[in-house]
């Protein structure tokens, strides 16, 4: 968030939504224990933080994943915060940006986590109806249910250099198809070559690139200075 949003005027969205344990899930640890450990490690309540603010003076809503929170996995809270972020962007007539870093759907929430794939993807239609830009930023890694849902639905899809992006991991694919994958398979550069993403942008240049794209997409008055 600090790399993307201007310092002044930030407002967190849907921070009151907290994860629960409706399935009473337990593997080697109880789900509430995993949540507590993730909170302690990250200072966040779940894997997605959504904020309204400005980017080089342009109003935006940014949703950013915290990979250290259970691998950035998408559960019901992540899905609901994403949707509320989209709705806020529509209400405030501004662009929506999502920075993804995720291993996929959160297994501890079962079908509730898988439902977020359709929920988040469907919400983006609200932006389309209002002709508001959705810029998707894929970082390392962006995998599983996140890559298979909203991650590639951006009006512009950006990726960081060498980011691992895909559904199943390369080792799983190799074991399934019993073939050796091409060098660099599922890396950002490979996806750019195949036309799956639009641009590769270094993190240090991301704020300017996104604000320039918003300026072009929304026909604002000028592109920001270098």
UniProtKB/TrEMBL annotation:
Residue ranges annotated for the CoA carboxyltransferase N-terminal domain, each copy included: 1-226
Stored Pfam families: Carboxyl_trans
Classification via InterPro entries: AcCoA_carboxyl_beta (IPR034733), Acetyl_CoA_COase_Trfase_b_su (IPR000438), ClpP/crotonase-like_dom_sf (IPR029045), COA_CT_N (IPR011762)
Broadest EC class assigned to this enzyme: ligase
Organism of provenance: Neisseria flavescens NRL30031/H210
GO function terms (MF aspect): acetyl-CoA carboxylase activity; transferase activity
GO annotation terms (biological process): fatty acid biosynthetic process; malonyl-CoA biosynthetic process
EC number: 6.4.1.2
Keywords for this protein: Fatty acid biosynthesis, Fatty acid metabolism, Ligase, Lipid biosynthesis, Lipid metabolism, Transferase
Family matches, as PANTHER family: ACETYL-COENZYME A CARBOXYLASE CARBOXYL TRANSFERASE SUBUNIT BETA, CHLOROPLASTIC
Single GO cellular component term: acetate CoA-transferase complex
Name by which UniProt lists this protein: Acetyl-CoA carboxylase, carboxyl transferase, beta subunit
